Amino acid sequence: MAFNFATFRTRALTAIVFVLVMLTGLLWNQWSFLVLFSVIHFGCWIEYQKLVGLIDTDYREINASHRYGIMLAGWGYLLWMTDSSYQLGNISFSTIGWWIFAVSFISFIVGDFLFGKKSNPRLWAHSFMGFLYISISWGLMMRLYTNLHQTIFTGANWLLPVILIASIWINDTMAYLVGSFIGKTPLSPISPKKTWEGTIGGALLAVLVVVLVGYYTLHFAIKPLLLISLTGAIAGTLGDLFESKLKRMANVKDSGNIMPGHGGFLDRFDSLLLATTVLWLVLYFAY
Prior knowledge:
mainly alpha, two-stranded antiparallel ribbon, 10 helices
C-alpha cells in the first residue's frame, strides 16, 4: 500500500492534540481532571447509544427523558464519587452529584413510563448496561484520583490514573510490535489482527517496563506496580475486544469520528473503561 502523506498528517496532528488535551486534563489540577472525564463520559454515552441504536433499532425511539436522563444520572454518579477537594462554597460536589443522580434516575424511570413509545425491559437493559460500562467506570476513575486518598503511593493525586493509562498504552504498543514480528495465532475472531503472541508479549513487556521504571526511577513499591500493570494489560485487552464486539454487531468501523484518523471516544478509551473498574476492585480487595 502506497504511503498517504495526507492521512499520516491528519493522524499525527490528531494524536498530538489528543495527547496535549489528555496531559492537560490529567496533570493540571483536580478541576481539569473532572472536566476531562466529564467530557469523556458524555462522549462515550453518545457513541454508545448510537451503536446500540444500530444493533437494536427500537432503541432509536427512546424518548428524551430516557436518553438524557440515564446520561445525567451517570454524570451525577461521577460527581458523587469525588472527594472533599471538590467543593462549591460549603457544598461538596459529591452531594450535588448525589442529587443529580437521584433526580435524573427518577426522571429516566418515570419519564419512560409516561412518554415512552418503546418502553420495555430490553431497552432499559441496554441503558443499564451503558451505566455499568461507562458511568460506573468514570465514577471509579474519580476514586482512583488522589491515589485512593494516598494509600497506594506517596505523591501526586494523578499517579494511579496516569500509571494505569501508561500501562495500557505500553501494552497496546508492545502487543502491536510483537504481533507484527512473530504473531501467528489469532487471539479472537472479534479482532482478527490481534494474536496470542502479540497479546502475551505486550502484557509481559508492559509489566516489565512499568515495574522497572516505577521501582528503580520513581522508587515505588513493586506490589502496586504489578497490580496496576497487569490489570491494564489484561483488562485493557478485554475492554478493547468488548468494544470491537459492539462495533461488529453494529456493523461499523469506528464508534465515532470526533478524532479524525483515530475514531471516537469509545475507540480511544475502550481499554481504560474496563481496566478502571477492574483496577478499583483489585486495589479495594488488595488494600
